[in-house]
Design goal:
The protein is α/β, with parallel strands linked by helices. The chain has seven helices and six strands; from the N terminus they run βαβαβαβαβαβαα. Keywords: Pyridoxal phosphate. Pfam families: Ala_racemase_N.
Length: 202
């Protein structure tokens, strides 16, 4: 925050819970607020289990790791109960790697459209992890594929809302591949180790 960071993301729900007060205190020194209704948004970018939803929602502006309509419905219900409107992104396993979470690319359009209709949620866009290979062409092709999915959903939502919908964002690219992601249209990159180095999580 002192270095000028104005968007913060955490990989794990317990990290958000553990650091919330510290971040608020640091932001207050700059005359700012962190999290819901604050000038510095706080996002969960890692997996969220159902039993952690109530702890995360009051603290985080958005959740980038929604893997489908089932989790989205649970978050929608909890957000309604808390009187919140939460930004969400649909995580897509664009590389198809078994070790990664996220919905399958062929389901992404239908899942996103379904999520967009849920109360107390704002579909902000899509998130993915690049393929774990040192091959620019392969990694960029995955990012390009998600961009095409985003464009398709944005177009359908624009038609539904008579053009009064915001183009959806793309959260793509981390420390090792963010330049390739930006080249393929990423609007949000998630830089961690390049700034902080290896970390021990809470």
């Amino acid at each position: 925050i002192r270095a000028g960071v104005r968007v913060i993301g955490e990989n794990r729900p317990q990290e958000i819970v553990a650091k919330a007060e510290i971040l608020r205190a640091e932001a207050a020194k700059e005359g700012l607020n962190v999290g819901v209704n604050g000038e510095i948004p706080l996002y969960l970018i890692g997996q969220l289990q159902s039993n952690k939803i109530n702890k995360v929602l009051p603290l985080a502006n958005g959740i980038q790791s929604i893997d489908g309509i089932d989790l989205a419905q649970k978050i929608s219900t909890r957000a309604q109960n808390l009187g919140l409107c939460t930004d969400v992104m649909l995580e897509v396993n664009i590389s198809g790697e078994a070790t990664k979470s996220g919905c399958a690319p062929e389901r992404a359009i239908d899942e996103a459209l379904a999520i967009s209709s849920l109360p107390s949620l704002n579909l902000r866009g899509f998130m993915t992890l690049g393929a774990r290979v040192n091959d620019e062409k392969v990694v960029r092709s995955g990012f390009a594929a998600l961009r095409e999915i985003r464009d398709c959903v944005s177009e359908q939502l624009a038609q539904y809302y008579d053009g009064n919908s915001t183009k959806l964002e793309l959260s793509m690219g981390m420390s090792g591949d963010f330049a390739w992601a930006i080249a393929e249209g990423s609007t949000m990159v998630r830089i961690g180790s390049a700034i902080f180095g290896p970390r021990a999580f809470v």
